[in-house]
Automatic annotation (TrEMBL):
It comes from the Eukaryota. Residues 1014-1264 form the Exostosin GT47 domain. It comes from Rhodotorula toruloides. One of its GO terms (molecular function) is glycosyltransferase activity. This is Proteophosphoglycan ppg4. The gene is FGENESH: predicted gene_7.318. InterPro entries: Exostosin (IPR004263), Exostosin_GT47 (IPR040911), NAD(P)-bd_dom_sf (IPR036291). It holds the Pfam family Exostosin_GT47. Belongs to the glycosyltransferase 47 family.
Amino acid sequence: MPSLRLSSLVRLGSLAFLTLFILHFLSSFSSPSPSPSSYYEPLPGEAADPGWGERLGLDHYADWEEGVRGRVGAGLGKLKDGVGMITGFGGRGAKLGSLYELVATSNASPGPSYYDARTSMDKIKLTSTRVLGHGGKSSSSSSSSADDAADTISFASRDRRHILVTGGFGSIGKAVVRDLLLTTGGSSSRVDAWGAPTETADELTWEEDVLVTILDVADRSAELNFLLQSALLDKPGGAGKIKGTDPRTQAFSASERSVENFRKSGKLRVVVGDVRDEELVKSILDPAGTTHTDLPADQQAAALLNPKLGRPKQKGHTLATTVIPPVTGIVHLAAYSPKACRTNPVDCRSVEQDGVSAILEAIKREGMEKQAELVERPWVVVPRRADRWDEASIADNGNSSTLTVQVPETAIKAFTTKRPLHSLLLELPSAFSIIGDPYASRFDPVPHIVHSALGNLPINVYTSSTETEPFLSIDDASRSIIQGARMLDVASSKEYLKSLGFVAELEIVGPPPSTSSKRPSPLAELAQTAISLIQSESPYAEIETVRPAVASPSESRFHTSETSLRKTASKVLGFTPTISVHTALKSYISSILRLQTTHLSAKINVACSSPPSTPVLEEGLLALSGCNVQLLTLIEGAYYTLGCSQGLEGEHDEPIALVPAVPYKEGVRGVEIIAERGLENKVDIQMRCPVVGKDGKLVPGESEIVMWADTVDGGEFAELNKEGAHPIAEWYTIDFVQRDSRSFTMTLPPTEGVPEGEEPKRRLTFRDPTSTKRSLLFQPTGEDAHALLWKFNPICCPATASRRKDVWDFFKEDPLITSQVAYPSEDGRTTLGESTLAVKRCHELRAEHDRITKLQQRVRSGPSSVSTSDVCRPTYGEALTWTAKDQQTCSSDCSAPIACIASEDCKCTRDRCGDSRPESPFPRVAYTDRKSFPATDAPAQSLAERVAALPWDALVLPGAKDAFNLGVDRLPKGHVVQLPDTIDNHLKSPACFDLERSPLPFMGDHYLVEAMKNRSVTLDEASFVLVPYYQGCYYNYLQENTFKKLADTVGFAETAIATNPAITGDRIVIPFTHDFGSCTGWWQKLEDVLGHSPPSPMDQAVAWQVNGDYNTRCIKVDRDVVVPAVTKHTKALFETFKTPADVAPVNSRKHLAFFAGGVRGFGAIARTKIGCGRTGQDPNSAILYQQFSPGQRYLGTLNASKFCLLPRGIPAWMTRTFEAIYAGCIPAFIVDRNLFPFQDILDYSRFSVTIPEADAHRIEEILSAYTPEQLSELQANLVKVREAFLFKDGEEWERRGPLFFSLVSMQMRLPLQYPEVGSCTA
């Protein structure tokens, strides 16, 4: 066969190529329409919804568009696509996703186009002759180069981009504004935020020339500042951090990225106002632009509504006023969160409906059709959380709201049927599934888990097979919004799209799990990741629950698969979530640690500052002249004071004596001092004590000087007028020898007539250091005599106009705050300086700072992502093996971003700080049906009505809500050990079980045990075992040896429990309802009675006790349950305040505050300060001190007082606490470092006030600052929870009383497992 010529081969190839093209062309005439997407599967028995687009006749629109274009056009388009794919010349790079695959036509469309990823409405996704696709090279673009060039010129020549962000200071809003101002938005995880592959002219124009206006009801510029200055900068339009040689490094240094600088540079405007304010919104969206006046954010709204404020003056200085371009796009984020929506559904709906209406009304542009330059409407992006969409109403979701975005959705669609509008409804994950806002409520799930892990606090995770929605980084959420905004903005510049109305709906979900194995619960994965990153020693429990399906992308009944949603978002929006949970958590933890570091730095600068100079200390001492103070010294680790001896037990020959600083019986002892400048310009003090009359009573207003008198023994303190005394000195020189602890020595002045230097200084010392009798003597110091170090503790200072309290820093530092309630050091080596509160606080702050530094290094290091299987998981065991079980309890700081962070020396416990961020954006209308805008006066509402409107969820802490909502029948069941009468003989004394015959409040054990006996289950069925022990009864009434009784009880119970090895120590409960709780009968002393170590597992038993003072070792802070004490006024309280209607409203009460109680023992310092300047004889006083209201007795006075003052007591609180609570008297706790009953369940900040003990002298000033609205809210919350604090015999199972809350606490504790020492397995 002859060989083919080369020319023949070419002709053959050309013929084949032409044949393929013809076949491709002919096939286009019979191409089927695109099949509907499977984005929505109707529920069983539910008819398929034709969708909004079909109801508007978009099927006809699709046919109409095909007719305009014609089959030939379609074939030619596909032909060119084919050429492009074969030759690689398919047109220039794409810019947008397939969201705008619409035909180019000069004819007006008969209706809006529509794309809905949640329904079957994908009807108009036609084969386009013009593609704005996303990604790399697109082969489907058939537009001409000339058209493209024209579009580019049009885009670049448009007015400056001006984006209005409503709700711009919200959680997501701040991130969006940050990323708009910082172009690509920051860290490497947000590279290429616009999704653009090249740096074209229009991209840079967008990035470099954007003006952002924030409209929000609150100005949170400080929060936005932090985000701006914390963001890592990337090169606009591409990956990689800005290099040091780049000039933008200087311009965009952290110090330059501030709200104020962006305002001054014309890139940011902040307007404080409501999106429902039609006039304000209309002014902002004025098509002719608006006037920007350099005014504070809270005055911007007034300036916009009053143009005169923005006009420059004719002469002299002018206001910085500029006319800015019209708004070209709107990101509408202003809305209630689903959680906040429950606080006021009426106002929530108003924000949604009226807010969108105000925006749409402002962009109608009625009567401007002929003014082309004014007709252009801004595009609109409406992002909302998933539990605000249509599905929420058909899902039983605890986080969802009955309200949805159906209101703005419907309004936008209706608007678009009549006027061209480009809009995007963006569905983000549900309420608590977005990670990353450092200012999010500490009670939201993710912050709650992270804060708990940082404090080594217990973490309970409730999981469900129906709750598998992945978490989304707030940076990814912001990026998806901005990508949608950019698409709409670019499209709105295309002439052929301007007259087309367009509405799109898309869902955004988080990235897929990082493991290919069986998917764990996202919340459990997050908790374990947080524990690993922080290296937390938190006890942990993962509790599987059965819950109804939730409206989330993970639930197939409501949505397509997550994979399909990610593909859809990538295709039509150009967005793919890239930030894993691990990376998002690292970023979030790093952010809150930076906030904490800033706060700590300020605290450390104060607490650890250089000690004041001697002149400053002397000025402070002079300011104390006329005050009653304690002269404190430290003896064998305990504080003693040099105080007046009148009234002390025993014989005291001298008017002042060295006594315990807080004697249990006599109360606080001090002396009055007069301070003046003496010899050598040093400060001398004179000491005075009250005058005792012949009747043995103190003479009011009189005092006598205490001098140092000569005796045969070397001297003594004596009254100046004592007969036969030989005065030596009545003034004592103060020498500050340790400025850091503000401690000093007291010295006698030199003997008159003796030349200076010839006489040794005589300082106050012990007469005989080896004697048990602590007698004092002024003598020269040396090896045998050491000068005693003293320090002042002010108790009461008369108020005088000339007194400068600011020079005496001890008004803010009370060294006794932790001294008398903590055990002395074992070796007695505690120094006066080490025991000073300021010094202790400095050490604590530095330890916390060191922990944060280590955490930040750990968070910053390591891979950016990690699989679930690679997470370091501790080995968990019983409480006995817990690494942190013997650590002390850290202090809490409610003013800090993180109230408590555990260090190597201490662990945290649940605090009473509450949440600094209000639950509702409009707190004044929370739990009402009133609208916040326009503002109206609150209608009269009774206390009973306010209480009835309050949901329990508002008062229960997040970690307790799941357990609380179980209901009493699903809470843990208990087995009560049946003790023989020879051991349990508490019924022998009526005082042990009959409240009316019991003078002391120790009967809580009886009520709890008897109630549990009524529903006691078998040992095999029990979740825990209750061992009856009647501590107060045995000690006070039966006069038995409580330790021997406890030993007998434990011995019998041990035998009874031994048959069930599943009952471990943390499942055994013993009640201790005496004031001292387990301190009077716990294992340290029990060992002496038993003769051997306490039996295991009894030594790890859980105490239900009244003592919550964690300065001592009497309580295991996160294991024991603190319960209320029984009050002898129980019956009277139930009868007097039967219902909320019987409680006097707080604002009708006469007195600001009421204190009833003694001034002895624990809390005596604070109690004495409360009484400073109050005689208890003034019935018109704002604060009633140890007196009743005129014409009233005790309960009547409670009902006439707004606040009840409750300083520290023996169990860290007073029994009167529960009487005050039930009477609706707001508790004002004056106590530090303690636990109150059920503090791990109830949010005490919602119904009480806590005042530091050091500020006890400022109570009137502090309490007077509360507004009537705040008082009403506190009281309503208080009355809602009051049943938790009062026992009701025989009815504990029918109410939410102490027993119910004790069982809720057990539900939170029983599943916990504790990390073992040094454990960490992959």
